[in-house]
């Protein structure tokens, strides 16, 4: 399911236009992105949570040349699904 399909489904369920739903979804995703960009955790009840974690710098060995190099510290986004979302995936 892509963004357009989600917008159409939500618009149908709420009796709104897809254009209005698109504006709301854009605002929501922009707000989440801004918060994550600032390093804040984002928790959406019954859905899940997003957080930024830092991966430590480490050494890596190139298997072809045997050269050892440093991989710099990096940040990544982690998503942890909520209880309700997990139950939709399981056969509960």
From TrEMBL:
GO cellular-component terms in the record?
A: cytosol
Q: Which SUPFAM superfamilies does this one have?
A: IHF-like DNA-binding proteins
One record GO biological process: chromosome condensation
The record's keywords, sorted A to Z, are: DNA condensation, DNA-binding
Instruction: Return the similarity comment.
Output: Belongs to the bacterial histone-like protein family.
Which Pfam family, any one of them, does this sequence belong to?
Bac_DNA_binding
Protein's name according to its UniProt entry: Non-specific DNA-binding protein
């Amino acid at each position: 399911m892509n963004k357009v399909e989600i917008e159409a489904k939500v618009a149908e369920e709420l009796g709104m236009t897809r254009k209005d739903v698109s504006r709301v979804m854009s605002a929501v995703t922009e707000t989440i992105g801004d918060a994550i960009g600032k390093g804040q955790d984002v928790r959406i009840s019954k859905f899940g949570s997003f957080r930024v974690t830092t991966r430590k710098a480490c050494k890596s060995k190139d298997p072809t040349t045997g050269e050892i190099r440093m991989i710099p510290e990096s940040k990544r986004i982690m998503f942890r699904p909520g209880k309700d979302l997990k139950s939709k995936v399981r056969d509960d």
